[in-house]
Amino acid sequence: LLQMFSFCPCSSHADTDLQSQLKQLQSRFTWDLRQEDMDLDDLSRQLQDARDSLQPLSSSPVLRYLQGRPEEAESILSQSEEKIRECYGEKSDLRLIVMYGDLAWLKYHRGDYTQSQNYYKRVQDFQHPTGSPAVLHPEVYGEKAWTFLKFSVSYHHKAIDCFCRALELQPDASEWNKGYTIALYRTEPDSPATKQLSRALDLDPDDGFLLALLALKLAAHHKHQEAKSLVERALLLSPDDPQVICHVGRYLRQQGQLDRSIDLLQRVLRRSSRSHFIHHQLALCYRKKKLNLFTRRQSTVAQRGLD
User: Fold this and answer.
1) 177-226 pLDDT per residue, tens
2) Phi and psi (nearest 5°) for 189?
3) Which family is it part of (predicted)?
4) Which of 9, 39, 184, 266 is the most exposed place for a label (fewest CB within 10 A)?
């Protein structure tokens, strides 16, 4: 996205110096995110589906900017800062490094160079823990990884690399383990993903989303009793989470429990009516019901022919 900031009206030597400084920041506008790699409508749906967590709140401003709504982008970033301070308290500063970088770029782009400089100064001295630009805080690696994971499938391997770097510094952090798990689940063969799922659940055994993912993996390996137990636990812990219900619905469909899958998906759909994933799973359920009905009719006709 950096190239989108290369032109600024009434630029001066001082403004050019500021832009050079901003390029040193850790920000979604300096991470080589390319609009041509993204499906903005799909990204918007993903962020809407996960609206109850902090990740979509921090990622939404870039989406709003790409949609030509910079004022809304700034407003969301301000809300994000408040939420992060509420959530992390004294540990908020490291969580705000990327956000202040985003704000610095947005202010610069809108011609507010004084505020842009202020945000730059807030993070310039501590965004690199060792003083070397090659080393980042785990919170920055993590934020970068979540961004790559959400913005485009073509960035998933970059997400894996960033989560690995965060885990090198904080190996027992449940957030980075969960993100690493999801990235592996989407990109790697079964073995690494399944092993990492177990690791992530050891750190956070009550995560309904991870329970549902592991259930799908176990079912694929014909470990049906274990998978069933995990699904029931996921439903108990996260009965209204659209992302959890989506994967539980997928599991139930694969097990032939179409009516139960449809009931769960429709219930959560009333809460998240725009969820692309829920609509997709419902469509697959109805398609399978139709195929089952067709197969039964064909079988009945064939049996009558034999009679």
Assistant:
1) 999 999 999 887 666 888 899 999 999 999 999 999 999 999 999 999 99
2) -60, 170
3) Belongs to the IFIT family.
4) 9
Residues contacting 261, CB < 8 A, separation 6+: 248, 249, 250, 252, 253, 281, 285
d(CA 288, CA 304): 24
Sequential DSSP letters for 12-57? -HHHHHHHHHHTTS--TTSS---GGG--HHHHHHHHHHTTTSHHHH
- Distance, first Cα to last Cα, the chain: 70
For residue 49, give every residue at least 6 positions away whose Cβ sits within 8 Å of its Cβ, in sequence order, or none.
Answer: 242, 243, 272, 275, 276, 277
CB-CB contact of 60 with 48 (8 Å):
no
Rounded to the nearest 10 degrees, the angle between the axes of helix 113-124 and helix 13-22 is 40
Q: Sorting pLDDT into bands at 50, 70 and 90, what band is 5?
A: very low
Q: Tell me the pLDDT tens digit for each residue of 148-179.
A: 999 989 999 999 999 999 999 999 999 999 99
CB-CB contact of 146 with 179 (8 Å): yes
CA pair distance 36, 137, nearest whole angstrom: 29
pLDDT on residue 280 = 92
Sequence-distant (6+) residues with CB within 8 A of 264 are 235, 245, 248, 249, 252
Distance CA 14, CA 26 (A): 21
Distance CA 212, CA 242 (A): 12
Q: Which long-range contacts (CB under 8 A, 24 or more apart) does 72-75 make?
A: 73/106, 74/103, 74/106, 74/107, 74/110
Task: Write the CB contacts of 19 (distance below 8 Å, at least 6 apart in sequence).
Answer: 5, 8, 108
Return the pLDDT at 13: 55
